[in-house]
């Protein structure tokens, strides 16, 4: 009896997983639709956090079809190209703001949470995923350490442009990045983006000390 049940469960799993590719069979689509439905019934709206946050855009939905963060090369290139097109350079052409303000933005985790209002100052929450300086004793490690970012990469205009683009829209460089798209999704303002880029690029910033 037990064995039969287990065999039946395995068959169902296989049927759900079999297909020609990640976007393959009709049963894959059905499993994905069921997962979305389950999430939508499990989450509750609270404050400014509405259920539309569960709606995936094209990039997220393609990335969700792969079990690792790395889709096939041609898919990755397509996603990166589409996201690169969304990167807007600063209106005055200057990438660097004030690193001291940038540090406050990087250390601030508020904004867009259910307990925030629309007036709550928005931060970049960078420290939750990155080490930023040696003085830091508590930081997340989802992302690589950014300590000595410009000291290692260089302080020149190419790296400034890369830092801007990366913070503006990480998916332009890493198709299925876990990093928020701070510019492309309007999380940080143009001035805040410049301040954060200065935090990464200024030789006097604790990032490069
Ligand atoms: C939810 C986690 C998360 C948050 C929050 C986050 N990042 Fe990232 N970041 C990542 C991950 C993961 C990577 C590595 C994958 C990639 O390159 O996209 C990364 C990569 C980077 C890189 C590229 C590093 C390199 O050596 O090329 C930079 C620069 C960066 N992040 C800056 C920032 C800044 C500045 C902030 C805050 C405004 C921030 N990140 C917030 C997860 C995060």
Characteristic terms for this protein:
209 residues, Cytochrome Bc1 Complex, Chain D, domain 2, 2 domains, globular
Please outline what is shown here:
With about 210 residues, this protein is mostly helical.
Task: Write down the overall geometry.
Answer: globular
Order of helices and strands: HHHHHHHH
Could you name the CATH topology of the largest domain? Cytochrome Bc1 Complex, Chain D, domain 2
Task: Compute the CA-based radius of gyration.
Answer: 21 Å
| Cα-to-Cα separation, first versus last residue | 66 Å
| Total tally of structural domains | 2
CATH superfamily of the largest domain: Cytochrome c-like domain
**What value does the average pLDDT take?**
89
Helix content: 40-55%
The number of E-state strands comes to 0
Instruction: Return residue spans where pLDDT drops below 50 for at least 5 consecutive residues.
Output: 1-21
Instruction: Please state the second-level CATH architecture of the largest domain.
Output: Orthogonal Bundle
> Structural class of the secondary elements?
mainly alpha
Task: Furnish the topology, listing elements before pairings.
Elements: H1 2-17, H2 26-42, H3 58-64, H4 73-84, H5 99-107, H6 149-153, H7 157-168, H8 190-201
Helix pairs in contact: 5-8, 7-8
């Amino acid at each position: 009896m037990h064995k039969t049940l287990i065999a039946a469960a395995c068959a169902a799993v296989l049927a759900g997983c079999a297909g020609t590719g990640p976007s393959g069979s009709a049963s894959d689509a059905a499993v994905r639709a069921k997962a979305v439905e389950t999430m939508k019934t499990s989450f509750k709206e609270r404050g400014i956090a509405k259920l539309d946050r569960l709606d995936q855009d094209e990039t997220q939905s393609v990335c969700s079809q792969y079990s690792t963060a790395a889709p096939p090369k041609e898919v990755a290139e397509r996603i990166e190209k589409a996201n690169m097109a969304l990167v807007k350079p600063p209106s005055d052409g200057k990438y660097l703001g004030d690193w001291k303000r940038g540090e406050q933005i990087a250390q601030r985790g508020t904004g867009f949470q259910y307990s925030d209002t629309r007036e709550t100052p928005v931060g970049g929450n960078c420290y939750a995923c990155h080490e930023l300086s040696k003085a830091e004793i508590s930081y997340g490690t989802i992302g690589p350490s950014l300590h000595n970012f410009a000291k290692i990469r260089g302080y020149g205009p190419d790296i400034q442009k890369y830092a801007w683009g990366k913070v503006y829209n990480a998916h332009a460089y890493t198709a299925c990045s876990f990093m928020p798209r701070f510019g492309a999704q309007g999380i940080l303002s143009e001035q805040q983006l410049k301040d954060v880029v200065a935090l990464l690029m200024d030789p006097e910033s604790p990032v490069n000390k």
